[in-house]
Design brief:
alpha/beta; Rossmann fold; seven-stranded mixed sheet; restriction system; methyltransferase activity; DNA (cytosine-5-)-methyltransferase; methyltransferase; C5_MeTfrase
């Protein structure tokens, strides 16, 4: 029997299934997501989900997974999907009765990607004629919840038990407060959300068993827990699609040393070679200012500066900023490869006569993948822009595993996902 994954992306659902001992077949159009999946050994058909026929899967599909592209609905985009929502609802209603009006409705859509959220119903209607699938799991940004409720009403009429709602990934051990609209449906069991395993504050043990653990922080997920003020150990650079690193290779050791001691070296230790030679550069998204390297380091009465690190989710004025000892905000990446940056502020107790300038370092694909609960060695394909796009669009595998385990009769163990690098 087949588990079919529509809009499979780089393998968020697929990796969760692999952890649970099951393989799926993913349908995906993006070239680089397909290359990532291939490198990870995941079965993939590169195709446009809207064009691919259903008949090859009839009579053999036990589960259907769907995470339609979120760009049309996401806060990170123009959100034209909200304006197209009546057309998407109409497409779902028509497809549920076997009428294919997608071509006519697509002509009226402001964002052509909006109608992709109706594609799962085309598959579901065809499968229903064969008494399939046994279960369904779908995920999208919160604004799609009304559409999931429409799906739920149709599926209930077909004999499914269905639950829809908003889940916070942090409640399931993901180091990110990523809120998503979820649909869970089953022909054989009562559909319900998985019980949360984590909470904002740790809960004590009670008569009903152990309490939930505290939300996983970015520092824990990235393996920075050995120090009270961790810092990034590597730095990534570049503008759209990649580019040169903002620091010379020798600075990696400086950063590692600082992490190990919980301190940050004077700023002159982190100035790029080009700037040490007197070449200036713009100060934006992780670049340093043009201060001369010969300027004396800040005078301190104590040890080297202690720095407090936070993650800024994007370059917008209202961007979410979270301390390293908290979960990240929702990770998404726009047209720039590295809008998400680590920002360091000196601790006020340093006793310095002059406070150093705050530092910023762009997040790496490896770090972003870990914050989505992908393995540290996940084989992201493409340049930086292509890698970050895949990561931002993926469902966190740890959340996916919690959603899928009951349908597969599996028990998810706490050690099934290693978060730390």
């Amino acid at each position: 029997m087949i588990v079919l994954d529509l809009f499979a992306g780089p393998g968020g659902w697929s990796h969760a299934l692999a952890v649970l001992g099951v393989r799926d077949i993913g349908l995906e159009w993006d070239e680089w997501a397909c290359k990532t999946r291939a490198a990870q050994g995941q079965l993939t058909i590169r195709t446009d989900v809207a064009m691919y026929p259903v008949w090859p899967f009839l009579g053999k599909t036990t589960g259907l997974i769907a995470s339609p592209p979120c760009q049309a609905w996401s806060m990170a985009g123009k959100r034209l999907g909200l304006l197209d929502q009546p057309l998407v609802h109409q497409a779902v209603a028509d497809l549920a009765t076997g009428r294919d009006t997608r071509e006519q409705l697509l002509a009226s859509c402001r964002d052509k990607r909006s109608l992709l959220a109706a594609e799962p119903m085309r598959y579901l209607h065809a499968f229903h004629q064969h008494g399939e699938p046994e279960w369904v799991a779908m995920e999208e940004v919160p604004d799609v919840l009304p559409l999931w409720r429409q799906y739920a009403a149709i599926l209930r009429n077909w004999g499914f038990s269905v639950w829809t709602g908003i889940l916070n990934a942090a409640d399931y051990g993901v180091p990110q407060t990523r809120r998503r609209a979820i649909l869970i449906a089953s022909r054989t069991r009562t559909a319900e959300p998985p019980p949360p395993t984590h909470a904002k504050s740790a809960e004590p043990e009670s008569l009903f068993g152990p309490g939930r653990a505290r939300w996983v922080s970015m520092a824990e997920a990235l393996g920075w827990g050995a120090t009270d003020r961790p810092v990034p150990t590597v730095c990534a650079g570049g503008g759209p699609g990649g580019g040169p690193e903002p620091f010379p290779s020798g600075s990696r050791k400086t950063l590692t040393d600082a992490r190990d001691r919980g301190t940050w070296k004077p700023q002159s230790a982190l100035v790029p070679k080009s700037r040490r030679e007197g070449v200036g550069s713009s100060a934006q998204h992780g670049a340093r200012d043009n201060r001369a390297t010969a300027a004396p380091a800040p005078t301190c009465t104590g040890e080297a500066h202690r720095w407090s690190w936070s993650l800024r989710s994007n370059n917008q004025p209202n961007a979410t900023v979270r301390r390293a000892d908290e979960p990240a905000g929702t990770l998404f990446f726009g047209h720039r490869a590295n809008e998400c940056v680590w920002v360091a502020e000196p601790a006020p107790s340093d006793g310095c006569e002059e406070q150093p300038t705050p530092e910023s370092i762009r997040i790496t694909a490896r770090e972003a993948g870990l914050l989505q609960t992908f393995p540290a060695d996940y084989p992201w394909a493409g340049n930086k822009g292509q890698q970050f796009s895949q990561i931002g669009n993926a469902v966190p595998p740890r959340l996916a595993a919690h959603l899928l385990a009951p349908h597969l009769g599996k028990t998810l163990n706490p050690d099934d996902f290693t978060l730390a690098a």
